[in-house]
Amino acid sequence: MLDNIQYEYFESVDSTNDKIKQRARGEAAEGLVISAGTQTAGKGRVGRKWESPKNDSIATSILLRPDSMPLEAVPTVTVVAAMAVRDALYSLYNLDGKIKWPNDIVLNGKKICGILTEMELKDGKPWFVVVGIGVNVHNRQFDDDIAFKATSVDLELEKLGAAQRGHRAELTRAIWESFKKYYNIFIKTQDMSGLKGEYESHLANLGERVRIEAQEKSYEAIAIGITDKGELIIEASGERKIIRTGEVSVRGIYGYV
Ligand code: BT5
User: Fold this and answer.
1) Which atom of ligand 1 lies closest to the CA of 44?
2) Helix crossing, 76-93 with 168-189: angle to 10°?
3) CB 59 within 8 A of CB 38
4) 238 C-alpha to center of ligand 1: Å?
5) Peptide bond into 102 cis (omega under 30)
6) What does the alpha-carbon distance between residue 223 and residue 235 come to, in Å, rounded to a whole number?
7) For 126-142, what is each residue's pLDDT tens digit?
């Protein structure tokens, strides 16, 4: 059970995930959250970069020390975290984001949040797990390579005509409080059985055509839902298949989402 959350904040770090990992190799307890005003080496998946310009976005990571989590269940923690970010954006700002499986939250077809889960093993078992979340909050401009597919809380609130603006500390706390709620449901069964219905109600592209971009090939399919393990179920050429988190990108056929 995730119980006590303790918050630490730094103006600038290399990566909040790396900072948690350093502390986790020492004595740091489960529930330590490290957030930063900016990251000099923010990471996406498989060596990609995550942009977190100074004081515009949230970069925050939590340390988990699950007692006996099987290795296969670790990627599912990303899926749980996505629910928490969606929930926090909705309850604080009424922003009705969609979850782009496995690790993005999107609004109006653009990415507002990315999640990176990492772990370290001891004796072949997960020793600790780090969940890192990046959310664009005040960003108005993005680097050229992502400008077409990125958005922020403030930009989306403006689109709705709301006077309200995002607040990083408030949103960070709401995300981790919400994560605690979902994670503690997940950890009981170590799967998505208690969360699947809610998850699927927010899944982007549900019932729609998507393009599966795997390393060796790319093909079209229909997104059907998720399994109890948090894997994506698709139907391609009349056959159901399961896509595991890993280096597979799922895209709507008309663009990034
Ligand atoms: C992710 O990877 O989306 C995971 C991002 C996790 C970031 C958090 S911040 C706190 C913690 N500390 C870290 O060092 N990381 C975590 P992926 O699905 O691989 O997407 C990466 C891609 O998203 C990049 O290649 C860009 O195309 C795009 N991207 C980069 N920065 C972005 C931003 N601020 N907003 C939207 N898209 C962005």
Assistant:
1) 2
2) 140
3) yes
4) 34
5) yes
6) 7
7) 999 999 999 999 999 99
Q: Alpha helices of the chain — where are they, by DSSP H?
A: 16-24, 76-93, 153-159, 168-189, 196-201
Rounded distance from Cα 116 to ligand 1 centre (Å)? 8
Q: Which residue from 12, 35, 50 has its CB within 8 A of the most atoms of ligand 1, so it is best to mutate? A: 50
Residue with tokens 């370290």: 120
Residues in the chain: 257
Domains, the chain, with CATH or none: 6-201 (3.30.930.10), 209-252 (2.30.30.100)
What's the CA-to-centroid distance between 40 and ligand 1, angstroms?
Answer: 13
* Residue 64 structure tokens: 């988990």
47-78 confidence digits (pLDDT tens): 999 999 999 999 999 999 998 899 999 999 99
User: Coil, strand, or helix at residue 70?
Assistant: coil
pTM for the full predicted model: 0.96
220 closest CA partner among 236, 206, 232, 204: 236
